[in-house]
Amino acid sequence: xxxxxxxxxxxxxxxTTPRTSYALCLDETGAPGHIGxxxxxxxxxxxxxxxxxxxxxxxxxxxxxxxxxxxxxxxxHYGPPSLQVRHADGTRGFEWCFQSHDVLRPSPGAExxxxxxxxxxxxxxxxxHYRVREDTDVIERRTVLRNAGDTRxxxxxxxxAAWTLPPLPAYRIGHVTGQWSAExxxxxxxxxxxxxxxxxxxxxxxxxxxxxxxxxxxxxxxEHGRVWSAALAxxxxxxxxxxxxxxxxxxxxxxxxxxxxxxxxxxxxxxxSPVCAGLFTDGGFxxxxxxxxxxxxxxVLPHRDELAPVLYNSWEASGFDVDEDGQKALAERAAALGVxxxxxxxxxxxxxxxxxxxxxxxxxxxxxxxxxxxxLAAHVHRLGMRFGIWVEPEMVNPDSDLYRSHxxxxxxxxxxxxxxxxxxxVLDFSxxxxxxxxxxxxTRLVADHGFDFLKWDMNRAVxxxxxxxxxxxxxxxxxxYVTNLYGVLDRLRADHPGLRIETCxxxxxxxxxxxxxxxxxxxxxxxxxxxxxxxxxxxxxxIYPACAxxxxxxxxxxxxxxxSVPLSFRFHVAMSGLLGxxxxxxxxxxxxxxxxxGLVAAYKRVRHxxxxxxxxxxxxxxxxDRPSCSTPETVPMRCCFWRGGADHGTVPRTKQSVCAA
Length: 661
Known about the structure:
hydrolase; alpha-galactosidase; Aldolase_TIM; disordered C terminus; 27% strand; 661 residues; alpha+beta; single chain; 13 helices; globular; Glyco_hydro_27/36_CS; 33 strands; Beta-galactosidase, Chain A, domain 5
């Protein structure tokens, strides 16, 4: 069966994945309408499901609230719009007029359907893109808008996709909530009638929510039940709006940006939305998770075939008191444990002695590294480890040479206070000159010192985003900031193909499919308390795979919570993702060092399963109703097991606990 089939007479298209189908059509008004999303269909079956719109029963209803592929604000659509446009004369709305369609083959094993429309009166063109692949049930959707006229228009809302669900007896929504140090707390609750909005207005993905959603009928569990889910590939402000209607329907729309912003679109300009990827499964939440993990490993992450190294980070040992001799001593202890990547954290540059100064001055502190970072990098490499460094390129301290030279480079509103958070301000990455400056010093730093790894941090949210006098002002800034950030990361990858990058924003504040397409892993949370990490990692892993989840073993009592748990428990929790060590090794006893070395060796024996295999959850964190989970030492590792992935055929495809050691 082809991936994309079409009936020209009926105006029906059928997208086929290994286990599912997605069908759409042109409805009686010319708008793209939804037919079905679920188990496999033939084109003939899809045609039988393509029924005309029902007549309205009330003059108060307008167009159907759910059921369109991209509902437009057309004057009689009263549900959440996916497309809102304001033309130069003040007229709003979009009237669908179908132009053409194409089926592209962007890569081997993939096909992409493009449906092109134009407004009947105005020179606005809209193209809906659907990409399917022969190795995944994930469907990628995006929207491209082009101003084909000679006057400026404004995009009030331009979502990537709207997704329609079948009528169900009940609906349950799954998503994550949280805050700094308590990210990705999984919630599953009945979907209320009306509209439920998940969003970030902070300029980053945020600690407080994440741009993915799952919906089921309230009956799904780990092994059974139909689940519909979608995830947005965007690292700035975003919004997902789920709707449940009184007549028993539901759907959701997702896209970049938050309410109240207006994106200008000049003559000849295009806006391309980020990808919103969707997935259906009838195998419950476990099958959904495994399908997302396989898709992200195969089609999102850059170093998709690499096993990540065991990492050591010096932050907890050194804080801001970083110098060459101290880091060399830590590196020697880390190498003796079997660590493969040594990372120097904050404090290595400029006048950085606390979080009050130095950000923006990205040269090694001469009093701490008199010959630069070269000798330390060479020492780490001689020990058989890779070498990495912490950076925060988007930020500046007012007490820095950079700020004194370029006070206009930060986000600010003229005449209003410049609000400092964590004693820092945000550089305006939407300006190309600032993005170019960041790329310049970053690529030189990596090249000059042979760095293998960057921990890219961002320790505050965006605020006071404005640029008076420029069309669109601060509204255009929200989008350009993210696209320029992506541009810097893309250029760094092109300059240094072997470089690994970790996305961090005070922990898990910037984790999404957009940034993971340009980085290798995510710092999951600044909270390294092993017991708290069970819930954080459980929510993270609903969508994102273990090979993207950084997890550290740190000292006790934990610096954040004050809790003390055994070293083996801390290791077992961290071994469920990308194992890292962040404790002060100069204070570990000989017994602790020997135990740690043994656990690092055990992780290396099973990391191909953890990082590349398929994860099966036995139950969530917090439950103690199984004998095998009766003690803290066994809970994390026995809540899940991994099967060898298809890309590691030598691994027996049987249950294997990562507690194998």
